[in-house]
Amino acid sequence: MKYAYYPGCSLHSTGIEYDISSKLVAKRMGIELKEIPDWNCCGASAAHTTNHMLGLALPARNLAIAEKEGLDVLAPCAACYNRMKTTELAVKASEQTKQKIANITEMDYQGNIGVKTALEVFVKDAGLEAVKALATKTLGGMKVAAYYGCLLVRPHDVGIDDMENPMLMDDMVTALGGEAVQWPFKTECCGASLPTAKGKVGLKLVYDILSMAQSVGAEAIVTACPLCFVNLDMRQSDLNKKVSGSSFKIPIFYFTELMAIAFGEKPASAGAGKHFVNTSEILAKYNLK
Amino acid sequence: MSLNSEALPKSQEVTAAPEASNQPWEPKIVGFACNWCTYAGADLAGLSRLQYPPSIRLIRVPCSGRTNPQFIIRAFQRGADGVLVAGCHPGDCHYSTGNYFTRRRFLLMQRLLEYMGIDPARFQARWISGSEGPKFQQVVTQMTEDIKALGPNRKMRDVE
Amino acid sequence: MQPINLTSAEAAGRDLVEKVQKASGVDVKACYQCGKCSAGCPVGSAMDYTPRQIMRLLQLGLVDEVLKSRSIWLCAQCETCSARCPRNLQPDKVMESLRIEAKKAGYEAEDEIATFNEKFLRSVAANGRLYEAGLIIGFNLATVQPLKDAGCAPAMLTAGKLKLFPHKIKGKDAIRRMFEKAEKAEGER
Amino acid sequence: MRRVGVFVCHCGTNINGVVDCEKVAKTAAGFPNVAFATDYKYMCTEPGQDLIKNAIKEHNLDRVVVASCSPRMHEPTFRACIESGGLNPYLFEMANLREQCSWVHANNKELATVKAIDLVRKAVAKVVKNEPLQKSRISITKRALVIGGGVAGIQAALDIADAGNPVTIVEKEPSIGGRMAQIDKTFPTIDCSACILGPKMVDAAKHPNIEIISYAQVEHVDGYVGNFEVTIRKKARSVDLKKCTGCGTCQEKCPTKVDSEFDMKLGKRKAIYTPFPQAVPNKPVIDRVNCTKFKTGKCGICQKVCPVDAVDYEQQDELIIEKYGAIVVATGYQQFDHSAYGEYGYGKYPDVITGLHLERLINASGPTMGKIKRPSDHKIPETVAFIQCVGSRDEAKGHAYCSRTCCMYTAKHATLVSEKIPGSKSYVFYMDVRTPGKGYEEFYKRTTDEYGAQYIRGRVSKIYEKGDKLVVRGEDSLIGRPVEVEVDMVVLAVAMEPQSDAGELARILGISVDKDKWFTEAHPKLKPVETHTAGIFLAGAAQGPKDIPDSVAQAGAAASKAIGLLSKVEMETDAMVSSVDESRCSGCLICKGICPYKAIDAKMIQERVGGKMVERQVASVNKSLCQGCGACTVACRAGCLNLLGFTNEQILAEVEAVCL
After folding, report:
1. What is the rounded distance in angstroms from the CA atom of residue D228 to the CA atom of residue A127?
2. Which site among D397, D430, D459, D479 would you substitute to test the C interface, given the most C Cβ atoms closer than 10 Å to its Cβ?
3. What is the mean pLDDT of each run of 10 residues along chain C (189 residues)?
4. B43 in contact with D at a CB cutoff of 8 Å?
5. Measured distance CA(A22)–CA(A31) in Å, rounded
6. Domains in chain C, ordered, with CATH?
7. CATH fold for domain D578-643
8. Architecture of domain A128-285
9. Complex-level ipTM beyond the 0.95 threshold
10. Do D100 and B7 touch (CB under 8 A)?
11. With contacts defined as CB-CB under 8 Å, which chain C residues touch D457?
């Protein structure tokens, strides 16, 4: 199994843990990742809400490069995946769009290769049995709330799981011996760039998600999106300062970190040391040191 | 059952009348429509004032299954540019099974006509229910376009 | 205050509404104003017009209100509205198209968000990739909140999450050209 | 030469506004066999018809063509007209100049006129070949079948029976009563459903002309109007109805408890059960799927305790074949399954229930003895949210149509909740409140004004559990702000949808269903209870969402149609049937296999061949069974079968006429 690997900008900076842990999991699963040479930013939501074609062209360039190598793309970042998948579908749907894009990118992406995201490849395709088989440690009943956000489930032709109650990460947590707490905010929006661009509005969304997770007794939240991760992880101290009575201290994990750790990697080498909210405590509690 | 066609006036009198001459060529399509679905659908198109080319002449039959292949061949012989056989959707036949016969015959018929050198596009079968006025409009419009593209039917016509 | 003259409004708005419908692929007339989009919208309560109202304004051709509204900028593109719309419409696509049109018309009711996107894209246009540190600093300076999130910076640096210098890709000239061409294409629409 | 009269109708400007009617008439006058042609403003009016009758006499016409609207509209009118004018009604044809010419070619008057002339020529060419036809008569079976024993079926049965006709009600459940039996109170009067339905059920049971076959289904239908032959499968009840007294001992003693369908699974019933206390017939049935005796062979208590030894484990399904003159279809509706709504919890939240669930919770003989307790913890809810249009007016997850009843029953529920739970608060999320019935609007206003239900205009986007509460997210679209309410229970006004087996029944009966699978009436306005199949009528929600008053009204209408049919000793059948040219028939009988109505059979004829009589087999058509589809005529290898009124000669003449 071999994929063209597309880390995307976040995984090279604020989402570095996701990059590290994804590579570890891939290695353990015998999946070869070949980084797309000289890849560019997918444009995130900034591009397509500013200029429709730009929003398609930026991902298309990366897909075109990958197509040359005849490899499907693995894009862990939910936003990158969503943008690339949207482009893939647009190109497959309309010859005209395909041409327009080609004119802009000066490369022709034919739609012969597609894009998948980490959760798809590591859990959905691999299967829970494979995940169990690789586990050498158990999460020992750790209460984990799986948070999917928007871009992995919507719209439904792009999404990889149920729109209202996705289960892929829940099943993974259970497979690794954790307890996937069921909660209603799995696919609520974290505000994406709003917490940065529009503090007040954005922070409220993060607050709602965190407090719901807290109220259902989650000890940790697991996610598959670097933007969700940053919002949930980095904003907690901020919220504790700004919102009276709130004292969040919920460790956030990338699902790949938990997988890597369960597969026997040191938490530190899986990236768990780089979080804002300390993870050593909970990992210690379930002796996953 | 030969019908003395000379007994009837040649339509040139009307169709080729001077005022009609400035009209572009309009194909002549003979349509066999079952009384319960397609004929009703055509009426509905009228009730809803849906406009379509004046190319089709509907012949009302109780069931599309009544359409004898002989009728179709005769139509082409007499210079029809297209023939449409239309009835209820399979399973909805007013006589429960009639349109299944239509469906089977259609496939045979089309192969035969193809063999006789008639473009299959000139002979079509469609399922149009009594509630599908818009579909009737669309089918006639489309078929007229297709046949306009093919031009007049010159094969096996014995009038000229 | 004058009552809105719908007859003239509809005529005045027609072109833009057409444009938005074409770009978004959404027939705004099909909206029957049930409000499910607005009920589920995570930022609905922060908007000046709920997504439903945006659709309604478009139905009436009141495009100025729409282009000047903050809502089209606040939309987080989470697509919850589209996922649940009983008429299978896609309000988020409408928001997307409206934002583009608003920018063309020179309206940026939410300048912070506009600025953020602009800085974001500039960074990409310049380097081919997003330089997050640059984006945050540039954005904070532009919006006169220099120390916003600054507390996080040191930790991020040590964690290797913030780079001190942007990474420029080899194809960055190609990227720049893409931006120019897309710009042109957008203008022609 | 024939003497054909051609009458071109202007239909005001409907036709004449596009088609040059005068020119059409003038041209028609030149056609061979045409003795007279004229045009007139309104042919269907009395002066118009007189014009035709007079012309028949003056010009002694022997055939008539009317060029006007669709024959589906006025063929009967004009046939009657020329009949009273002294001609056989079948010496008549129509040219459809309105629906199929003027209305659809308004933008091309010239070619429309050309087409009109073609259509008239076609009609003339056909009518020349028309022959006088005679209708044949068949006797009628004076018995009606009513499929479905809900309020509509019961009403229809009572009306037909009161008129002196024997009626059979076939009900698939163990008891008649249908949905109305599950309902506690009825809007807008808030009278107890059981109190008004109960007596009707008893009346039906006691009526000398009514036979109730419950726990049974219609399996096959043969024949035709006046003489349907119906096969009914009476499912094995495991209880001998003749012996059983309905004492109920078996139900008391039965050790197996299962969820009660009648109580929407909120309560329990036994494995041998009557669905509800007032059941008719009030005699139990064994649910063989859950009965221990049938599962393991052990138990058998019910048989032991039965004082009259009515329990029969060996009982088999029984097939009853019976003849009926008319059939009324009153199979009702089923509830939309809201598990399609992920945003409302995929039907997994115990305290998110449907309207019928609430009916059972309110009902005094229901699982909670009339105390409204929420399913999860039997707590009495203080705040309740109602959500309308769940599965209705929703293409994405349900049906595009409006279910018509939900606005009112939701108002009723809000009223009842505030009556039963003092101090409780109701929130109703709606899109529109539709109250187009007598006293309905007034009832709705009372719900808001006197009972203080809070109506919020907006569709709910999400329901989720928070602690022991349910959070409901909507938009108050009147102020344009997202709103949230925290409630103890949510009641969904789910859509009415066709029974899942409606399509199958339609196939058995040979009637049609619309795009939503409701049975289709023959005409949306003028034939609301008829179907396209003569002798089969529709009553109640099987034809589309309806409340009780409408269902009962329609049942009455269907009954009167059935009574009208059964009141005849015999009826005329269409004269346009197949006929055999015996001299050319080879007796292969391929036609027999093709005929959907079993109208063709073999018959022996005497023939003189070479001086001596020989007997040989030919096909013969039963004129009263033949429905005139013409399938046989195409199948006949010798072409000796012909369909009167649509003969090969007539149709070929039409073909030639339009091709010229």
Report:
1. 58
2. D459
3. 88 94 96 97 96 97 95 95 97 96 91 89 92 84 77 80 87 93 82
4. yes
5. 10
6. 6-104 (1.10.1060), 111-188 (no CATH)
7. Alpha-Beta Plaits (3.30.70)
8. 3-Layer(aba) Sandwich (3.40)
9. no
10. no
11. 35
